[in-house]
Amino acid sequence: MHINAPSPPSKSSPYARYVLALLLGVNLLNYIDRQVLYAVFPLIQHDFSLSDTALGLLGSGFMVTYMVSAPLFGWLGDRWSRTRLAAAGLGIWSVATAAAGLAPTYPALLTARTTVGVGEASFGTVSPGLLAEFFDRERRGRILSYFYLAIPVGSALGYLLGGVIGQHWGWHAAFMMVGLPGLLLVLPVWLMREPPRSADAALEQNDTPDNGGYRALFRNRSFIANTLAMAAMTFALGGLAQWIPTFLYREHGLSVATGNTLFGGLTVVTGICGTLTGGWLGDRLQRRTPKGYLLVSGWGFLLGTPAAAYAILAPSLNHCLGGMFLAEFFLFLNTGPLNTVIVNVTRPAVRAMAFAVNIFFIHALGDAISPTILGRLSDIWGLRTALLSTPVAILVAALFAFVCCRSIEGDMAKAE
Fold first, then answer.
1. Mind listing the pLDDT tens digit for each residue in 18-32?
2. At what angle do helices 140-147 and 335-344 cross, to 10 degrees?
């Protein structure tokens, strides 16, 4: 079913900026609700007497549901109202996050967290492409960088709120207090104007596996290489995001509140600086070469690899935090550029599907498995040794970013 919407406001208009602000706010809640779990890991582990493997499964369960749901919402997003899908997703994950605060047992908590994945998949598949249609191609790198500021800022707030609320009032209160505010934004997102699809006619006439469906994406070499780069990066970042607060708690003797405050503070500073720098550099370099976004991301991965290894191996807290600061800054350079590559190498008619496929594979190969893998390795060899697998994954991400440079120009031309 196609939505016949009124003409949207002109690109970069006040309404377009309103859409950016609204979707950015929702995305902030997205990452707050996602990351708060990891802030209270030690508290949950103590209450339920869990192994590291069972603890890691809480993160993996969410990601498995998230990635499995994404293709369905991607298919719907190219045929139904994206604003309604985004609003429904926000409502589902907000209720599920609050419900986690009521969970009396480990299975109940696992069920609530997997349901969060359904809601976030609905929003995550449609929102980047929806936002991109309100702005010109030349500004997409910066606009999506603003949108993805929610990753570091929302993650940092998730760690900060989870750590402080969890230490003072318990992990149940942490889930309740971060989940319920999302319900306030459901109606504004539901009422947001839907821009007309520039390729609706082509989609209706050519929606076959060869011309417009998922199969076409698997013949897009740039899309594949870019997705593999993001998958390797997601494996590393997913594992680090889940286990670093616990690492600081165990290896450096910090309290839950102090460790999450330090990690959250580092994440918000490096995330804002790295994400905005990456978007600015990517747009600037992209004017000179079609490889601009990929070069920024690839070099960021290369520079972030040794910094991440040093942060894990450093014996002192100060050296650990210094290495972490550099690693996060360089890794966050890729946020806007790699998502912009997806937009630039896919046609508007299948853009939600493209993000759905991307979401499925980056999580299937990334943070759907890395938390549990690292938890299992931690049970065997210790958490510090387990975390050393993440710099290797970051190096693999750099390799695929540079491989993508070989086909990007031709695939961008085909998408125009």
1. 989 999 999 999 999
2. 130
Q: What CA–CA distance (Å, rounded) separates 280 from 296?
A: 10
In 3-state terms the chain splits into helix, strand, coil percentages (rounded to 5) of: 80, 0, 20
Count Cα neighbours of 46 within 13 Å in the Cβ-side half-sphere.
Answer: 10
Distance CA 58, CA 371 (A): 9
Query: Are the C-beta atoms of residues 195 and 133 closer than 8 Å to each other?
Result: yes
Sign of the dihedral defined by the CA atoms of residues 335, 340, 341, 347, in that order: positive
**Spatial contact of 178 and 36, defined as CB atoms under 8 Å apart:** yes
Closest CA to 244 of 312, 196, 293: 312
Instruction: Kindly tell me if the per-residue pLDDT of 6 is higher than 60.
Output: no
Cα–Cα distance measured from residue 345 to residue 340, given in angstroms and rounded to the nearest whole number: 9
Distance of alpha carbon 193 from alpha carbon 191, whole angstroms: 6
Torsion over CA of 103, 106, 112 and 118, rounded to 10 degrees? 180
> DSSP character for 105?
S
Give, for 20, the enclosing helix (H) or strand (E).
Answer: helix 14-39
312 Cβ contact partners less than 8 Å away, ≥ 6 residues apart: 247, 320, 323, 384, 387, 388, 390, 391
Interval 116-155: pLDDT, tens: 989 988 898 888 878 877 877 667 677 877 888 888 888 8
CB 163 within 8 A of CB 267: no
Helices 221-251, 256-286: crossing angle, 10 deg rounding:
160
Global pTM value: 0.71
Residue-wise pLDDT tens digits, 244-256: 888 998 889 888 7
Q: What is the pLDDT of residue 264?
A: 81
Long-range contacts of 244-253 (CB under 8 A, 24+ apart): 244/324, 244/387, 245/38, 245/39, 245/41, 245/159, 245/163, 246/38, 246/41, 246/42, 246/383, 247/312, 247/383, 247/384, 247/387, 248/317, 248/320, 249/42, 250/383, 251/383, 251/384, 252/317, 252/320
On whether the CB atoms of residues 54 and 98 are closer than 8 A, the answer is: no
Please give the structure tokens belonging to residue 97. 């996050």
- 170 backbone dihedrals φ, ψ, rounded to 5°: 95, 160
CA dist., res. 340 & res. 334, Å (int): 10
